[in-house]
Design brief:
The complex is a heterotrimer of chains A (about 350), B (about 160) and C (about 400).
Chain A: H1 2-16, H2 18-27, E1 29-31, H3 40-60, H4 70-79, H5 84-111, H6 120-142, H7 147-158, H8 167-175, H9 182-214, H10 220-228, E2 235-237, H11 238-263, H12 286-297, E3 301-302, E4 305-306, H13 307-323, H14 325-328, H15 336-360
Antiparallel strand pairs in A: 1-2, 3-4
Helix pairs in contact in A: 3-5, 3-11, 4-5, 5-6, 5-11, 6-7, 6-9, 12-13, 12-15
Chain B: H1 15-48, E1 61-65, E2 73-79, E3 82-88, E4 94-98, E5 109-111, E6 116-119, E7 124-126, E8 132-134, E9 143-149, E10 152-156
Chain C: H1 2-13, H2 19-24, H3 35-40, H4 42-45, H5 51-54, H6 63-66, H7 82-90, H8 93-99, H9 107-113, H10 115-121, H11 130-134, H12 154-162, H13 165-168, H14 177-182, H15 185-191, H16 201-205, H17 215-223, H18 227-235, H19 237-245, H20 251-254, H21 284-315, H22 321-340, H23 346-409
Classes of the chains: A mainly alpha (about 350), B alpha+beta (about 160), C mainly alpha (about 400).
């Protein structure tokens, strides 16, 4: 066995400068300080995304898009395909875990100020990736074509329709028509399995390349201390030390997902009937709840404009601000850093409260 | 979890215990990795093998074979979550429809003597196009599309407009 | 607003001038007829007015002229005269054709064959005449849910006399029919489930030709809907036996008005069974009844057991929709068995219940498989979690080893 490995290694080395790559890899280091645990979140997000790609590819082998077959094919996967229940439940649970990790990763980067110069583009690509993940979540949710997904999509696509001028074209584009129909399903399917993955590949590639280029960021307080006392600077090798630790974290995630899939399998629901009345208390998945709940609470008229429009506008502005966050940091005319921190804290708190509130009410 | 700066956390150990310990850890890790990897790969491999179920998905349900359908007979078959009725008329045509009576949900049957579809519960009658023609049923039976391929008769819902 | 509306409606329905209504809409009972009621009257909607029944002159505001006996005004129509008055139009095919060619014109003829009609002809003025059932000034089309002869309201209309013990004293017939009918499954179908095809008084007794069905005829009436049961009964040993004993088919076991929802223990030898009214321990019928009850109960229990198991599997998160669908087949078998009972032949019944039991055996097995799979998943999870923990421990120790080595080398 050992000789085989050595032989393969030599074969590759003769063609690809394996030793050179290895030397480069050995150089990659991860800084060690009191906030180092937060470094795991990025890798965890990537791992969960990879898991989604794997389970998603497996689901693709049996799933049939189309209003008259989608639900039945998911039922088939859950009941007839061996371990189909496992693949599907892991995919659904991992999707939720992935989005949670993405948000956690975002906020950790924000509070540790890893977005500051020179890593602005890493942040921008990251925010775009977050939006993409939300898009994955929204498009994937419709694919089982059950009552919940149908009506969640109906309500969800109605919201951007409120935007003046572009709202209706956006609605028609999203739905593939006036109403949510089989055309919507086809469209969301195309987005979910082809277009979004292609975009994700590009963005993740860019994101990782930028991380590799700039190395790991260190929070300003730690950076300052290390500048004053260089002997305190600490780090570990990425390969194998940090990777092994990440592997531990990924194993924990796998165990958690397996447990969730076996103990709380994702429900199949009832096949969507467009002519039935919407079930009472329909609401989107938890990661959209804070926006949904906000829109529900805004009065019909606020600040001189239609309430829902104001809500959409507000979220649009926040999203845009989030995208351009690194460029909003400046010293003059006033030090915006404290403001950014305070607003970020406030928004995190708001999201948490609104999510719980939305989940608790009918 | 991360190593302290430069100082190893345990005191000096003899080399032999170290090697033994290392080997133990390596075996432990190797076993763990292999076993857990197996527990991930095994389901995936089983998943890839298609199950032996006759109707994959519900695009078209195999209702019957031509050989078993004499003219002026019918067969009840499973259609999705409810029963369906496949009728071969006296003139040889096939008709497929829901077998759930629209009155109170009993399963209807074909009457070869009357050449109509009949519900035994309260004497409801439907014609061969599913239309409710007498008795209590308030609505016609849902009519399905029938397709004949080689020796098989498939029934499926009328496609969405 | 209401006045304007009813005024407007009045104008659009009646002939332009209706002096009768002008006064009588403001009079108190019993002379009053409100404009609103009048506007809902189907005759008024068709263009007729007061004078078509009462005579007189609707153009004139002068009461002397409008209500002049010499000019044809009839005043209040006597009860005895009502059937012939209504028939003067409603039995005239030529006239009715102009308004509704599909409407029957033999109501009066039918009426004369009914118990009401026969007594009316002999001079009885207490029996029902047209207006007692149809209403008079508030007479609406039977398809109007507010009509006294709408299917959902017929029983109530009949009960106005037939449930009134005082009124019915002279006739010597019972007055508990309506109360009984209220408890029946037919009434439940109509009133609760809204099934307008469910039988009401007129379905079995007829409407214009109302007569109680005779001994031989009751089965005919029930069999109009319950054909299968009647046919089986007709081939069963009970048909001749009942005829000999002068017992009514259907009604003897199920009652005529208080037709309660039948239960499986109506067949058998328990306290609630109808069989023991005639059969006693030792005779062949008694034994058959016992066995038939056993068959039904076996199937019903099998369905319940399977249902419970599948429900448990479902609550535990397993997908059992296929088996649940199959169960519907077993339920259909039980439904069929409960009909086949009427042949009073245990062998035939057992064929049906056995078919159902076979299905429940399959669904029960499916439920057991689902629970087994549930356990398998938990065991599998447990094992893989153990492996994961082993790996985690292994990794931790490996990392520590590695870093000990590194530190030693520093």
């Amino acid at each position: 066995m050992g000789r085989l490995v050595t032989g393969v290694r030599a074969w590759i080395d003769e063609r690809f400068d394996l030793a050179g790559i290895k030397a480069l890899a050995q150089k990659k280091r991860v800084p060690v300080h009191r906030y180092s645990y937060w470094y795991f979140l990025g890798g965890m997000t990537l791992f969960l995304f990879g898991l989604q790609v794997l389970t998603g590819a497996l689901l693709l082998l049996y799933y049939r898009p189309g209003a008259d077959e989608a639900f039945e094919s998911v039922q088939f996967i859950m009941t007839q395909v061996q371990f189909g229940w496992l693949v599907r439940s892991v995919h659904s649970w991992s999707a939720n875990l992935l989005i949670f990790m993405a948000f956690a990763h975002l906020f950790s980067v924000l509070f540790l100020k890893a977005y500051r110069k020179p890593r602005e583009l890493t942040w921008v690509s990251g925010i775009l990736l977050l939006f993409l993940m939300l898009g994955f979540g929204f498009s994937g949710y419709l694919l089982p074509w059950n009552t919940l997904s149908y009506f969640a999509t109906k309500v969800g696509t109605e919201i951007p329709a409120q935007i003046p001028i572009v709202g209706r074209p956006i609605l028609l584009f999203l739905r593939g028509g006036e109403e949510v129909t089989g055309s919507t399903l086809t469209r969301f399917y195309g987005l979910h399995v082809a277009i979004f993955p292609a975009l994700a590949t590009l963005l993740i590639g860019l994101h990782l390349a930028l991380i590799q280029w700039f190395g790991m960021s260190v929070p300003p307080s730690v950076e300052a201390r290390w500048r004053a006392r260089p002997q305190e600077k600490k780090g570990v090798r990425f390969f194998p030390n940090f990777v092994l630790r990440e592997l531990m974290a990924w194993y924990v995630a796998l165990g958690l997902l397996g447990a969730l899939a076996a103990l709380f399998p994702w429900s199949l629901g009832v096949k969507a009937d467009p002519f039935a009345a919407a079930p009472a208390g329909i609401k989107p998945e938890w990661y959209f709840l804070f926006m949904f709940q906000t829109l529900k609470l805004i009065p019909a008229k606020a600040l001189g404009m239609d309430g829902e429009m104001l809500g959409i506008l507000a979220f649009g502005v926040i999203g845009f601000a989030a995208l351009l966050l690194p460029f909003l940091e400046r010293e003059k005319p006033f030090n915006s850093q404290r403001w950014i921190l305070a607003l970020a804290c406030l928004f995190l708190g708001y999201m948490a409260v609104m999510t719980v509130y939305g989940w608790a009410t009918r | 979890m991360f190593p302290a700066s430069g100082i190893s956390d345990a005191g000096p150990r003899s080399d032999s215990t170290n090697t033994a310990r290392r080997r133990f850890v390596n075996i432990l890790l190797g076993t763990g990795l292999t076993a857990s990897a197996a527990s991930f790969v095994y389901p995936i491999l089983r998943y890839l093998i298609p199950p032996k179920v006759p109707d994959l998905g519900r695009d078209a349900v195999l209702a019957a074979h031509i050989a078993e359908m004499e003219p002026n007979t019918a067969k009840t078959f499973r259609f999705g979550s409810r029963p369906g009725l496949l009728v071969r008329t006296a003139s040889g045509e096939y008709r497929g429809m829901s077998a759930t009576c629209t009155h109170l949900g009993c399963t209807v049957q074909y009457r070869s003597d009357l050449r109509e579809i009949w519900c035994a519960c309260h004497n409801g009658m439907y014609d061969l196009n599913g239309r409710n023609i007498s008795g209590p049923p308030p609505r016609p039976l849902e009519v399905f599309e029938v397709q004949v391929r080689d020796n098989d008769i498939f029934v499926r819902r009328k496609p969405e407009a | 607003m209401a006045v304007l509306l009813s005024g407007g409606v009045l104008v659009s329905f009646a002939k332009t001038k209706n002096s009768c209504l002008d006064c009588h809409s403001n009079l108190p009972e019993p002379l009053g007829v409100s404009a609103e009621i009048y506007s809902q009257n189907v005759h008024a909607q068709k263009g007729l007015n007061c004078t078509d029944c009462h005579g007189g002159d609707a153009e004139s505001d002068d009461p002397e002229k409008a209500m002049s006996r010499s000019l044809g005004w009839k005043g209040k129509i006597e009860r005895r005269q009502i059937p012939e008055l209504c028939a003067s139009c409603h039995a005239d095919a030529e006239r009715m054709k102009k308004y509704n060619p599909g409407l029957r014109v033999d109501q009066f003829q039918q009426y004369k064959t009914s118990v009401h009609g026969i007594k009316w002809a002999r001079g009885d003025s207490k029996v029902a005449v047209c207006t007692d059932c149809h209403g008079v000034h508030d007479l609406r089309s039977p398809s109007d849910p507010r009509s006294t002869v709408h299917p959902a309201n017929i029983a109530t209309t009949c009960s106005h006399c037939h449930a009134d013990a005082e009124y019915m004293k002279t006739y010597g017939i019972k007055t508990n029919q309506f109360a009984n009918y209220q408890q029946s499954v037919h009434r439940e179908a109509m009133a609760v489930r809204g099934d307008l095809s469910a039988p009401t008084c007129t379905t079995c007794h007829g409407n214009h030709g109302a007569t109680p069905p005779g001994v031989a005829n009751v089965t005919n009436v029930c069999s109009n809907c319950h054909l299968f049961q009647a046919q089986l009964f007709g081939k069963s040993p009970h048909k001749d036996a009942f005829a000999t004993m002068g017992l009514l088919g259907c009604v003897t076991c199920h009652s005529n008005h208080a037709i309660k929802h039948p239960t499986d223990d109506m067949i058998g030898t328990s306290r609630n069974a109808v069989c023991i009214q005639c059969h006693s321990d030792g005779d062949a019928g008694f034994k058959q009844a016992q066995k038939m009850n056993e068959d039904l109960v076996t199937l019903a229990n099998a369905i319940e057991a399977s249902d419970r198991l599948l429900g448990q599997a479902e609550r535990q998160g397993m997908e059992v929709s296929r088996a649940k669908l199959q169960e519907a087949g077993a339920r259909d078998a039980l439904l069929k068995a409960r009909v086949t009972v009427h042949a009073f032949n245990e062998r035939e019944l057992k064929e049906d219940t056995d078919a159902g039991v076979a299905v429940t055996q399959q669904t029960y097995t499916a439920g057991e498989k689902a629970l087994h799979e549930w356990k398998f998943r938990r065991v599998g999870l447990g094992l893989s979690l153990v492996m994961i923990v082993v790996t985690l421990v292994g990794l931790r120790l490996y990392i520590r080893n590695l870093e000990d080595q590194e530190n030693k080398q520093i």
